[in-house]
Amino acid sequence: MLNRKFILFTVVVLFYSILSSQDHSGSSPLMDLTTEVEPLGIVPYPQDGYGRGSDQLAQPDDVELLSDGTMIVTDVDNNRIQHFSQAGELIRSITADDLGLEESEIIPTGVTKDSEGYVYVTLEGVGRIARFRPDFTLDQFIGRPITVSADKYYQLENDGGLIKPQGLIAAANGDLYVIDMAKKVFKTGKKRNFGFRKFKKYEKEGRITYEYDRSFSQSQEITKVMRKSEGMTISEDQTTLYIAEEKPYPEQFGNVTKKRYIAAFDLESGRFLDKLFGVTIENDSITGGYFNDSVEGLSVFDEHLIAVDEKAGRIYFFDMNSGECRGFLGKRAYYYCDDHSDCIIAGINYNEQAIIAGEALPHLKNDWHKNELASPDGISAAVLKDGSKRLAVVDQWNSRIIMYDLDDILQKF
Predict the structure, then answer these.
(1) Of 98, 213, 237, 260, most Cβ neighbours within 10 A?
(2) C-alpha distances in Å from residue 121, one per residue of 70, 89, 112, 125, 394
(3) With b meaning 16 or more CB within 10 Å and e meaning fewer, what string describes 8-24?
């Protein structure tokens, strides 16, 4: 049975249609800001769609805004980490060679930063986390690659080992929380799961080291509550870890319709706090919700929890105290369908295979000025040195990052 406090953090269900712009709780309508907010710009700028050029990206996964307005982007299919200026120009590109790694397919995925400006990137292809200094030079690797079965993952001899790390978030003090998404290892039948690691930061005689937190692995309930996750964020008071659920199990919370949600956990212990965002609860069971297929990137800004609905092409804004959804921004791009679909428009198939092959150019068809998003993924919200508030969103299959004035968005709620 769920704790009764749980109900305080749920939201009213929305239908995946025009009705989704209404709040059926009897309060004010849910705000659709899609036509009211115009992005500040895109990165790279100018851009040339999917590819390997300095003005191109190939299935970017995550983004992290730095205090000077520049940003780090994980460019997955190109196996590189891109550092862009605020104006959208490439500053630096980092590949396996730059990291001194023999394996060229590093597959960078998650990116995050701590309060001192150090940047961390998960390297899924080599089972490590790269820690970069504020000047974006390599400081050290964290974790080590292992190949083990799920039942041996948490055994003592495999402490700190990583198989395919993806999701990543850094606490302000530099402690790291990592989702090890090795599907073939952790999946049992049709039931998904993943590994989870916490690395604690230590400083001794001026030297920074990271050690695997075994006590956290014994107390955490994350891998009991969640099934497939990548997006994570931490509350500004550094007490709560929020994790997005992408592939819920029907028996979990009586979630027969498999609605996606965001779950809250204690940052210190990893214990579940009986709080879910983005779903409706009736008789201790999930009966509906906002996210019909996939919730990806998460970010926290002031009292707002910001979440990306990848399939719907939307960015949702939740009040962290009440759990109420304040509104959303964005719409699914017309010129795009995923790798399991076909969408032939004027003789061109706009699926992912055609985009990779260069046969479809959705970035020229989908208008970023109108918030037409093709599988949005990672997000980052930050206050820059000049005091401006910014939101960056990975527009994955339009091969770009969309930049927003966050003040402009939040003032409308």
Answers:
(1) 260
(2) 16, 21, 7, 12, 16
(3) ebbbbbbeeeeebeebe
Q: What does the alpha-carbon distance between residue 82 and residue 378 come to, in Å, rounded to a whole number? A: 14
| DSSP bridge pairs for 349 | 344
Q: Which long-range contacts (CB under 8 A, 24 or more apart) does 52-58 make?
A: 52/78, 54/90, 54/93, 55/90, 56/399, 57/82, 57/399, 57/400, 57/401, 58/356, 58/399
* Cα 325 from Cα 355, distance rounded (Å): 34
Q: Which residue has the tokens 């003090």?
A: 173
* Residue 303 DSSP symbol: T
Quote the CA–CA distance of 155 and 95 in Å, as a whole number.
32
pTM beyond 0.70: the answer is yes
Distance CA 48, CA 60 (A): 14
141-192 tens-digit pLDDT = 999 999 999 999 999 999 999 999 999 999 999 999 999 988 889 988 777 8
